[in-house]
Specification:
The protein folds into three domains: 135 residues, Rossmann fold; 75 residues, Helicase, Ruva Protein, domain 3; 116 residues, no CATH class. It is 56% helix and 9% strand. The protein contains 17 helices and seven strands. Strand 6 and strand 7 form a beta hairpin. Helix 16 runs antiparallel to helix 17. The longest helix is centred in the C-terminal third of the chain and has 23 residues.
Protein backbone atom coordinates (compact mmCIF):
# COMPACT_ATOMS: atom_id res chain seq x y z
CA UNK A 1 0.00 0.00 0.00
CA UNK A 2 1.34 3.45 -0.92
CA UNK A 3 2.55 5.80 1.80
CA UNK A 4 -0.36 8.23 2.23
CA UNK A 5 -1.64 10.14 5.25
CA UNK A 6 -4.91 8.22 5.46
CA UNK A 7 -7.06 5.39 4.06
CA UNK A 8 -10.34 6.25 2.34
CA UNK A 9 -12.93 3.51 1.67
CA UNK A 10 -16.19 4.38 -0.06
CA UNK A 11 -18.98 3.02 -2.23
CA UNK A 12 -22.72 2.89 -2.87
CA UNK A 13 -23.45 -0.02 -0.52
CA UNK A 14 -22.73 0.85 3.11
CA UNK A 15 -22.49 -2.83 4.08
CA UNK A 16 -19.50 -3.52 1.83
CA UNK A 17 -17.88 -0.20 2.74
CA UNK A 18 -18.16 -0.83 6.48
CA UNK A 19 -17.03 -4.43 6.11
CA UNK A 20 -13.91 -3.39 4.18
CA UNK A 21 -13.11 -0.55 6.59
CA UNK A 22 -13.59 -2.77 9.63
CA UNK A 23 -11.06 -5.25 8.25
CA UNK A 24 -8.51 -2.45 7.72
CA UNK A 25 -9.19 -1.03 11.20
CA UNK A 26 -8.80 -4.42 12.89
CA UNK A 27 -5.58 -5.11 11.01
CA UNK A 28 -4.16 -1.71 11.99
CA UNK A 29 -5.22 -2.26 15.61
CA UNK A 30 -3.23 -5.47 16.11
CA UNK A 31 -0.08 -3.70 17.35
CA UNK A 32 -1.81 -1.16 19.60
CA UNK A 33 -0.56 -1.76 23.14
CA UNK A 34 -3.51 -0.14 24.93
CA UNK A 35 -6.75 -0.32 22.88
CA UNK A 36 -8.67 1.78 25.43
CA UNK A 37 -6.52 4.85 24.73
CA UNK A 38 -5.01 4.00 21.34
CA UNK A 39 -8.19 3.28 19.35
CA UNK A 40 -11.00 5.70 18.60
CA UNK A 41 -14.08 5.45 16.37
CA UNK A 42 -15.88 8.64 15.30
CA UNK A 43 -19.37 8.43 13.81
CA UNK A 44 -19.67 10.47 10.60
CA UNK A 45 -23.42 10.08 10.01
CA UNK A 46 -25.04 13.53 9.67
CA UNK A 47 -28.53 14.63 8.71
CA UNK A 48 -27.90 18.38 8.61
CA UNK A 49 -25.09 20.94 8.52
CA UNK A 50 -24.94 21.23 12.31
CA UNK A 51 -24.35 17.49 12.62
CA UNK A 52 -21.70 17.65 9.90
CA UNK A 53 -19.84 20.33 11.86
CA UNK A 54 -20.13 18.28 15.05
CA UNK A 55 -18.78 15.15 13.31
CA UNK A 56 -15.80 17.02 11.84
CA UNK A 57 -15.09 18.62 15.24
CA UNK A 58 -15.04 15.20 16.92
CA UNK A 59 -12.78 13.82 14.20
CA UNK A 60 -10.40 16.78 14.54
CA UNK A 61 -10.25 16.25 18.29
CA UNK A 62 -9.55 12.54 17.81
CA UNK A 63 -6.63 12.98 15.39
CA UNK A 64 -5.09 15.89 17.28
CA UNK A 65 -5.20 14.18 20.69
CA UNK A 66 -2.29 11.77 21.07
CA UNK A 67 -2.53 8.44 22.82
CA UNK A 68 -2.13 8.72 26.59
CA UNK A 69 1.15 6.81 26.49
CA UNK A 70 2.51 8.45 23.37
CA UNK A 71 1.97 5.37 21.20
CA UNK A 72 0.56 5.52 17.69
CA UNK A 73 -3.18 6.14 17.60
CA UNK A 74 -5.74 4.53 15.24
CA UNK A 75 -8.80 6.61 14.33
CA UNK A 76 -11.72 5.33 12.26
CA UNK A 77 -14.02 8.06 10.90
CA UNK A 78 -16.95 5.73 10.27
CA UNK A 79 -20.25 5.84 8.33
CA UNK A 80 -19.68 9.28 6.75
CA UNK A 81 -22.88 10.30 4.93
CA UNK A 82 -22.31 13.97 4.13
CA UNK A 83 -20.21 13.30 1.01
CA UNK A 84 -23.31 12.18 -0.90
CA UNK A 85 -25.31 14.03 -3.54
CA UNK A 86 -27.95 15.10 -1.03
CA UNK A 87 -29.45 18.27 0.44
CA UNK A 88 -26.98 18.09 3.32
CA UNK A 89 -24.07 17.19 1.03
CA UNK A 90 -24.72 20.16 -1.26
CA UNK A 91 -25.20 22.72 1.54
CA UNK A 92 -22.68 25.59 1.76
CA UNK A 93 -21.99 24.81 5.41
CA UNK A 94 -21.16 21.19 4.54
CA UNK A 95 -18.84 22.28 1.73
CA UNK A 96 -17.01 24.51 4.21
CA UNK A 97 -16.61 21.62 6.65
CA UNK A 98 -15.39 19.30 3.87
CA UNK A 99 -12.67 21.86 3.00
CA UNK A 100 -11.72 21.92 6.67
CA UNK A 101 -11.61 18.12 6.67
CA UNK A 102 -9.31 18.21 3.63
CA UNK A 103 -6.93 20.57 5.45
CA UNK A 104 -6.88 18.26 8.49
CA UNK A 105 -6.09 15.22 6.35
CA UNK A 106 -3.34 17.09 4.49
CA UNK A 107 -1.47 17.85 7.69
CA UNK A 108 -1.76 14.47 9.41
CA UNK A 109 1.39 12.84 10.74
CA UNK A 110 1.04 9.15 9.73
CA UNK A 111 3.78 8.20 12.18
CA UNK A 112 1.59 9.43 15.06
CA UNK A 113 -1.92 8.57 13.86
CA UNK A 114 -3.43 6.11 11.39
CA UNK A 115 -6.70 7.39 9.94
CA UNK A 116 -9.31 5.22 8.23
CA UNK A 117 -12.36 6.88 6.69
CA UNK A 118 -15.45 5.06 5.40
CA UNK A 119 -18.16 6.88 3.46
CA UNK A 120 -21.41 5.77 1.81
CA UNK A 121 -23.10 6.91 -0.33
CA UNK A 122 -20.75 9.27 -2.15
CA UNK A 123 -20.81 11.76 -5.02
CA UNK A 124 -17.76 10.90 -7.13
CA UNK A 125 -18.08 14.15 -9.08
CA UNK A 126 -17.04 16.28 -6.11
CA UNK A 127 -13.56 17.80 -5.86
CA UNK A 128 -12.97 16.27 -2.41
CA UNK A 129 -13.69 12.81 -3.73
CA UNK A 130 -11.26 13.25 -6.61
CA UNK A 131 -8.65 14.62 -4.21
CA UNK A 132 -9.03 11.54 -1.99
CA UNK A 133 -8.54 9.24 -4.99
CA UNK A 134 -5.10 10.81 -5.56
CA UNK A 135 -4.02 11.45 -1.97
CA UNK A 136 -5.07 8.42 0.05
CA UNK A 137 -5.01 4.65 0.17
CA UNK A 138 -8.26 4.70 -1.80
CA UNK A 139 -10.72 1.81 -2.16
CA UNK A 140 -14.04 1.79 -3.97
CA UNK A 141 -15.57 -1.12 -2.06
CA UNK A 142 -18.23 -2.12 -4.59
CA UNK A 143 -16.34 -1.41 -7.82
CA UNK A 144 -16.22 -4.99 -9.10
CA UNK A 145 -18.18 -6.27 -12.08
CA UNK A 146 -21.82 -7.18 -11.32
CA UNK A 147 -21.06 -10.89 -11.63
CA UNK A 148 -18.14 -10.60 -9.19
CA UNK A 149 -20.22 -8.61 -6.70
CA UNK A 150 -23.06 -11.10 -6.82
CA UNK A 151 -20.68 -14.05 -6.46
CA UNK A 152 -19.19 -12.40 -3.38
CA UNK A 153 -22.62 -11.70 -1.89
CA UNK A 154 -23.84 -15.20 -2.74
CA UNK A 155 -20.86 -16.65 -0.85
CA UNK A 156 -21.57 -14.35 2.09
CA UNK A 157 -25.22 -15.48 2.24
CA UNK A 158 -24.23 -19.15 2.13
CA UNK A 159 -21.67 -18.69 4.92
CA UNK A 160 -24.19 -16.83 7.08
CA UNK A 161 -26.80 -19.55 6.50
CA UNK A 162 -24.28 -22.26 7.34
CA UNK A 163 -23.28 -20.45 10.53
CA UNK A 164 -26.96 -20.33 11.53
CA UNK A 165 -27.43 -24.04 10.83
CA UNK A 166 -29.71 -23.74 7.79
CA UNK A 167 -29.30 -24.53 4.11
CA UNK A 168 -30.45 -22.22 1.29
CA UNK A 169 -30.23 -23.91 -2.14
CA UNK A 170 -28.48 -22.13 -5.02
CA UNK A 171 -31.72 -21.24 -6.83
CA UNK A 172 -33.29 -19.81 -3.65
CA UNK A 173 -30.25 -17.59 -3.02
CA UNK A 174 -30.91 -16.18 -6.50
CA UNK A 175 -34.52 -15.44 -5.55
CA UNK A 176 -33.45 -13.91 -2.23
CA UNK A 177 -30.94 -11.55 -3.86
CA UNK A 178 -33.48 -10.59 -6.50
CA UNK A 179 -36.14 -9.75 -3.92
CA UNK A 180 -33.63 -7.58 -2.06
CA UNK A 181 -32.12 -5.94 -5.17
CA UNK A 182 -28.69 -7.25 -4.18
CA UNK A 183 -28.61 -5.28 -0.91
CA UNK A 184 -26.01 -7.03 1.23
CA UNK A 185 -27.14 -5.67 4.61
CA UNK A 186 -30.75 -6.64 3.97
CA UNK A 187 -29.61 -10.09 2.82
CA UNK A 188 -27.89 -10.73 6.16
CA UNK A 189 -30.95 -9.54 8.08
CA UNK A 190 -33.33 -11.70 6.05
CA UNK A 191 -31.15 -14.82 6.38
CA UNK A 192 -31.22 -14.40 10.16
CA UNK A 193 -34.99 -13.89 10.07
CA UNK A 194 -35.42 -17.08 8.06
CA UNK A 195 -33.20 -19.00 10.50
CA UNK A 196 -35.29 -17.72 13.41
CA UNK A 197 -38.57 -18.76 11.80
CA UNK A 198 -37.58 -22.09 10.28
CA UNK A 199 -37.70 -24.00 13.55
CA UNK A 200 -35.16 -26.15 15.36
CA UNK A 201 -35.74 -29.42 13.49
CA UNK A 202 -36.17 -28.16 9.91
CA UNK A 203 -32.96 -26.98 8.24
CA UNK A 204 -33.84 -26.73 4.54
CA UNK A 205 -35.31 -23.44 3.32
CA UNK A 206 -38.17 -23.81 0.82
CA UNK A 207 -39.32 -21.39 -1.86
CA UNK A 208 -42.71 -21.09 -0.11
CA UNK A 209 -41.04 -20.06 3.15
CA UNK A 210 -38.79 -17.58 1.35
CA UNK A 211 -41.74 -15.90 -0.40
CA UNK A 212 -43.69 -15.84 2.85
CA UNK A 213 -40.97 -14.25 4.99
CA UNK A 214 -38.96 -12.03 2.63
CA UNK A 215 -40.70 -8.96 1.19
CA UNK A 216 -39.72 -7.24 -2.06
CA UNK A 217 -37.56 -4.17 -1.48
CA UNK A 218 -37.35 -1.18 -3.81
CA UNK A 219 -38.15 -1.51 -7.48
CA UNK A 220 -36.91 -5.05 -7.97
CA UNK A 221 -38.08 -7.45 -10.64
CA UNK A 222 -39.13 -10.11 -8.16
CA UNK A 223 -42.77 -9.22 -7.51
CA UNK A 224 -44.48 -12.44 -6.41
CA UNK A 225 -47.09 -12.18 -9.22
CA UNK A 226 -44.25 -12.19 -11.77
CA UNK A 227 -42.80 -15.36 -10.27
CA UNK A 228 -46.25 -16.92 -10.18
CA UNK A 229 -47.06 -15.87 -13.75
CA UNK A 230 -43.95 -17.50 -15.22
CA UNK A 231 -44.56 -20.65 -13.24
CA UNK A 232 -47.63 -20.92 -15.52
CA UNK A 233 -49.75 -21.60 -12.42
CA UNK A 234 -52.97 -19.62 -12.86
CA UNK A 235 -54.27 -20.26 -9.35
CA UNK A 236 -51.05 -19.02 -7.70
CA UNK A 237 -50.90 -16.09 -10.13
CA UNK A 238 -54.40 -14.86 -9.27
CA UNK A 239 -53.85 -15.36 -5.53
CA UNK A 240 -50.55 -13.43 -5.62
CA UNK A 241 -52.26 -10.71 -7.67
CA UNK A 242 -54.88 -10.37 -4.95
CA UNK A 243 -52.12 -10.00 -2.33
CA UNK A 244 -50.32 -7.44 -4.49
CA UNK A 245 -53.40 -5.21 -4.75
CA UNK A 246 -54.12 -5.59 -1.05
CA UNK A 247 -51.04 -3.39 -0.51
CA UNK A 248 -50.53 -1.60 -3.86
CA UNK A 249 -52.96 0.54 -5.82
CA UNK A 250 -51.04 1.04 -9.05
CA UNK A 251 -50.56 -1.85 -11.49
CA UNK A 252 -47.91 -0.10 -13.61
CA UNK A 253 -44.86 -1.24 -11.60
CA UNK A 254 -46.07 -4.83 -11.87
CA UNK A 255 -46.82 -4.50 -15.58
CA UNK A 256 -43.38 -2.94 -16.17
CA UNK A 257 -41.77 -5.82 -14.31
CA UNK A 258 -43.62 -8.35 -16.49
CA UNK A 259 -42.60 -6.52 -19.67
CA UNK A 260 -38.96 -6.21 -18.62
CA UNK A 261 -38.67 -9.88 -17.80
CA UNK A 262 -40.47 -10.91 -20.98
CA UNK A 263 -38.10 -8.84 -23.15
CA UNK A 264 -35.13 -10.67 -21.69
CA UNK A 265 -36.83 -14.05 -22.07
CA UNK A 266 -37.59 -13.36 -25.75
CA UNK A 267 -33.92 -12.56 -26.36
CA UNK A 268 -32.76 -15.66 -24.48
CA UNK A 269 -35.26 -17.91 -26.25
CA UNK A 270 -34.05 -16.70 -29.66
CA UNK A 271 -30.41 -17.26 -28.67
CA UNK A 272 -31.17 -20.73 -27.27
CA UNK A 273 -33.08 -21.73 -30.40
CA UNK A 274 -30.18 -20.61 -32.62
CA UNK A 275 -27.66 -22.53 -30.49
CA UNK A 276 -25.73 -19.38 -29.59
CA UNK A 277 -26.67 -19.72 -25.92
CA UNK A 278 -26.54 -22.84 -23.75
CA UNK A 279 -28.60 -23.65 -20.68
CA UNK A 280 -27.19 -26.09 -18.13
CA UNK A 281 -28.37 -27.54 -14.81
CA UNK A 282 -27.08 -24.45 -12.97
CA UNK A 283 -28.57 -21.95 -15.38
CA UNK A 284 -27.17 -20.04 -18.34
CA UNK A 285 -23.70 -21.05 -19.52
CA UNK A 286 -21.54 -17.98 -18.91
CA UNK A 287 -19.01 -18.67 -21.68
CA UNK A 288 -21.72 -19.04 -24.33
CA UNK A 289 -23.32 -15.81 -23.07
CA UNK A 290 -20.01 -13.97 -23.46
CA UNK A 291 -19.50 -15.36 -26.98
CA UNK A 292 -23.02 -14.36 -28.00
CA UNK A 293 -22.44 -10.88 -26.56
CA UNK A 294 -19.33 -10.41 -28.72
CA UNK A 295 -21.27 -11.57 -31.81
CA UNK A 296 -24.07 -9.06 -31.28
CA UNK A 297 -22.11 -6.04 -30.06
CA UNK A 298 -23.22 -3.83 -32.94
CA UNK A 299 -26.91 -4.53 -32.31
CA UNK A 300 -26.63 -2.94 -28.88
CA UNK A 301 -24.15 -0.15 -29.67
CA UNK A 302 -24.23 2.58 -27.03
CA UNK A 303 -26.20 0.45 -24.55
CA UNK A 304 -23.71 -0.06 -21.73
CA UNK A 305 -25.83 0.29 -18.62
CA UNK A 306 -27.96 -2.46 -17.14
CA UNK A 307 -31.08 -2.65 -19.27
CA UNK A 308 -34.01 -5.01 -19.87
CA UNK A 309 -33.60 -4.19 -23.57
CA UNK A 310 -30.15 -5.82 -23.65
CA UNK A 311 -29.82 -9.37 -22.33
CA UNK A 312 -26.01 -9.07 -22.34
CA UNK A 313 -26.04 -6.41 -19.60
CA UNK A 314 -27.63 -8.83 -17.15
CA UNK A 315 -26.00 -11.06 -14.56
CA UNK A 316 -25.71 -14.74 -15.71
CA UNK A 317 -27.23 -16.03 -12.43
CA UNK A 318 -30.19 -13.73 -12.83
CA UNK A 319 -30.66 -14.86 -16.43
CA UNK A 320 -30.46 -18.46 -15.28
CA UNK A 321 -33.38 -17.83 -12.96
CA UNK A 322 -35.39 -16.20 -15.75
CA UNK A 323 -34.54 -18.96 -18.23
CA UNK A 324 -35.95 -21.77 -16.06
CA UNK A 325 -39.46 -21.79 -17.66
CA UNK A 326 -38.25 -21.34 -21.25
CA UNK A 327 -38.42 -25.07 -21.92
CA UNK A 328 -42.24 -24.96 -21.80
CA UNK A 329 -42.65 -21.60 -23.56
CA UNK A 330 -42.31 -21.06 -27.29
CA UNK A 331 -41.08 -17.84 -28.84
CA UNK A 332 -44.63 -17.28 -30.06
CA UNK A 333 -45.92 -17.62 -26.47
CA UNK A 334 -43.53 -14.92 -25.30
CA UNK A 335 -44.42 -12.57 -28.17
CA UNK A 336 -48.11 -13.13 -27.41
CA UNK A 337 -47.44 -12.26 -23.75
CA UNK A 338 -45.83 -9.00 -24.82
CA UNK A 339 -48.87 -8.17 -26.94
CA UNK A 340 -51.14 -8.90 -23.97
CA UNK A 341 -49.04 -6.67 -21.71
CA UNK A 342 -49.46 -3.85 -24.22
CA UNK A 343 -53.20 -4.49 -24.33
CA UNK A 344 -53.25 -4.48 -20.52
CA UNK A 345 -51.52 -1.10 -20.45
CA UNK A 346 -54.10 0.35 -22.84
CA UNK A 347 -56.95 -1.12 -20.78
CA UNK A 348 -55.52 0.46 -17.62
CA UNK A 349 -55.56 3.87 -19.32
CA UNK A 350 -59.17 3.29 -20.34
CA UNK A 351 -60.26 1.83 -16.97
CA UNK A 352 -57.99 3.44 -14.34
CA UNK A 353 -60.35 2.61 -11.45
CA UNK A 354 -60.44 -1.10 -12.36
CA UNK A 355 -56.73 -1.90 -12.46
CA UNK A 356 -56.92 -5.13 -10.48
CA UNK A 357 -59.67 -6.48 -12.71
CA UNK A 358 -57.74 -5.45 -15.84
CA UNK A 359 -54.63 -7.31 -14.63
CA UNK A 360 -56.69 -10.33 -13.65
CA UNK A 361 -58.31 -10.50 -17.09
CA UNK A 362 -54.93 -10.15 -18.77
CA UNK A 363 -53.34 -12.98 -16.78
CA UNK A 364 -56.31 -15.28 -17.37
CA UNK A 365 -56.04 -14.67 -21.13
CA UNK A 366 -52.33 -15.39 -21.09
CA UNK A 367 -52.38 -18.54 -18.96
CA UNK A 368 -55.61 -20.11 -20.21
CA UNK A 369 -54.43 -20.60 -23.78
Amino acid sequence: MADFNFTFICGADDFWVTREAKAVFEDASKDVADPEFGLEIVNGAAGNVSEVEDAVNRFASAVQTLSLFGDKKIVWFKDITFLADSVTGRAEGTITQVERLKDLLSTLDPSAVTVIMSASPIDRRRAFQKWCEKNSNYTLADSGKPAEQEAHLRELVQKEAQALGIEIPFNLVTILLGKLNGNARLAMIEVRKIATNIGETEKNVTEELLNELVPNFGEGDFFEPVEAFYSMNLEWTLESLRRYFFIAKDSRPLLTSLQNRNRLMIQMKALLMSGQLRQGPRGIDKSSLERAASMHTQAFAGENGKSAFNVFTQNPWYLGRLAAPLGKLSLRNLVDFQKEFLRGFRDILARPTEQQEVMREMMVRCLSR
